[in-house]
Amino acid sequence: MVINGGFYEVPGTDIPGILDEASRQGVPVFTLSTAGRTDKESFFGAVQETLPLDPPLGPSMVWDALSDSVWSGLHELKSPRVVIVWPDARPVAGAKGDFWIALEILREVVSALAEDRYTGGRPTQVSVYVAPAPGGGETVLAEG
User: Fold this and answer.
1) In 3-state terms, what secondary structure has residue 62?
2) Rg of the Cα trace of the chain?
């Protein structure tokens, strides 16, 4: 298996192979877990628990601040390659609302970190793999 930079929707059954290959190649891996929830609070929580952030995020949930913090946090790793997996999301097709914004942020991070002009000549190949939660359909948001 080849791990290329980019944003991919994959079947959940592909995730173990991606993780094994990244480990074999010594590529840092970050696994976002939202338990099938794709609302803003769940995504922010998963990012804050999982990804390197620079600067750290405060209690307010501002999409632009999240994007900047993820970009800088990954760039400061000084790793030429990074893998992010989100194995319990929803299908990407038809994404809307908070889920669409979360996916767009991940796509923008992939694109911007690949550019010499944005990274001071030190690009990072980011590979994002999103897999639908088991069941593959819409996940009902938990109350609470």
Assistant:
1) coil
2) 15
